[in-house]
Amino acid sequence: MNLTFLDLSNEDWQAIWLTLKLCSLTTLILLCIAIPLAWWLAFGQQKRHSFVEALVTLPLVLPPTVLGFYLLLLLSPNHGIGHWLTAAGLPPLLFSFEGLVLGSVIYSLPFAVQPLKQCFRSIGYQPLETAALLGAKKFDRFYNVLLPMSKPGLIAAASLSFAHTLGEFGMIMMIGGSIAGETKVLSVLIYDHTEAMNYDAAHQLSFFLLVLSVVLLFILNRWQQDSRR
Amino acid sequence: MNYRHDFNPPVSGGRLGKAAAYLRQLMHSIVHSPDVKETLYLKKPEASSLLIDISLQRQGFQLRINTHIALTGITAIFGRSGCGKTSLLRAIAGLEPKVTGDICFDEQVWLSGTYKCPAEQRRIGLVSQNDSLLPHLTVEQNLLFGYQRTSPDLRQLHPEDIYQQLDLTPLLHRSVQQLSGGQKQRVALGRALLAQPQLLLLDEPLSALDRIGRQEIVPYLRKVLIDINIPVLFISHQLEDVVQLADSVILIEQGQLKAQGVLAKLLHTEPELQSEAMSVLYARQLPKEPSLPSSVCQLELSEQRILLPASPSPSTNLPKMCRLRIRAKDVSVSLRPLEQSSIQVQLPVQVTHWQAASSTAELFLYLSLSDGQQLLAQISQYSFDQLGIKKGCRLYANIKAAAIS
Predict the structure, then answer these.
(1) What DSSP state is assigned to residue A144?
(2) Which pLDDT band, with edges at 50, 70 and 90, does A104 fall under?
(3) Which CATH number fits domain B280-403: 2.40.50.100, 3.40.50.1000, 2.40.50.320, 3.30.70.120?
(4) What does the pLDDT look like over B338-352, one tens digit per residue?
(5) Residues of chain A with C-beta less than 8 angstroms from the C-beta of B95
């Protein structure tokens, strides 16, 4: 096996770019969803909170293929959401980059919600009440008190979402297929290379992913340690 | 007294109009109530009024308070742990979402029916028992958090003055985690004051502190509360704090209002306040006279001059009125003034009534001073009989100066 480091083809670069785009976009969307959702879950004690909590945690226990299968059903032009989308004249989400983003957001949701929920619980209401009595309005309290105090939780949520999306495979195979430049992300391309007995290329990409993941997790961990100090 | 007649409730609705009318009527009754005359001993003539008619239901606990409070100086909310003091304070501050009823402060409606004035618009300063400093900010940023959020025309207390008064300058650039418990409470107090509150709430600010921590805040607290003309509501379950700081008291028992009034009076009528029988007298501080040694200070109490050991704290900033705490067992009575005695404080008094103490051999004498203040003396049944004390008879109350704090 002849392994020249980073002797990557155009197809490989395309997949890398697509993967990073998918991960960043998913992380960004996840943070927007997870912050209010985690806040709601952190202080709610009713049945509906437990139910939503169970739904959010589902991707942790289900095989990605099961999740992918139901998304496939849901998004197919003959059923539910897919049907409405087609009726509204929108492009179908199935086998498209947008569909992958949707799938990834659902798939990585628990990884964004759980750390934020723990973080919000440890912060509690008190700092926000303090800020309110000092004259800070709602957005002011959110932006100048809750967000800066949640920095460790936000970093954990972002890094876990990003890394988890980076390693996504089963769900993408189910709803994205393997369309170059659209849904063919790194994990899928590695699988394709291996299927085609193209071990050199598969190894290069695998190694790239391995190093990227380690470096990413290391940097984020350092960052988190700093902000705890 | 003139009230503004352009008072517009923030939302329309019959309840608010009614609340405003109720408020005016009660303001009138507060101003003309006999209680106000008694508060003339205190330093502030004009009272803010706080009307409360609220209920709050929690599991196994109900808070129902209906009262008006004339806020002159420092009002203590006193009661056992778990009686609803903190809930009441949080309701006033707008932090209890489930509270129902009406709350009005002066002419502002804070709670009425479905209308609830958000906490950030009530301009309340709160110092709570636990550490409430924002950990992601420095001490200075914490102190200025509220100041920066008040409109400049409301700013009457300025950072430099507060830093100096509370001795905060050396702490400004530290991080919050580097402060001791007492320092944290000092910063919290400064921060609350710099937000220019119209009402200051203190929720057992001393309870989480050890003795050294208390020493770091109590002198500042007293100084600031006396200097700054903001009404204060102050929660405590410790009688000592109440007697040291409060002008009037609200007694709460199991979520209900038990009694309210001027401290000096309630001390003699409410058994909850009598874990140790004592009286509080107000005296006027007189200027130093060069003929007197510096170890004593001169006060005017009930039209009499008395000499007390000078307090060890620097007397430059002492208020003109001061409060003397006298335990009932440190007071003796005699038919004639004592001569050549170590007793420095002798006051002519009149017996109003008496009551048996816990042990049958002793009783409490309720004595009225010439200016109407009340003094409690604990004497034995034997000396009571010996002196032939009757209702209305005139005596001399003798107090050891060293027993006055």
Answers:
(1) I
(2) very high
(3) 2.40.50.100
(4) 877 777 788 888 888
(5) 129, 132-133
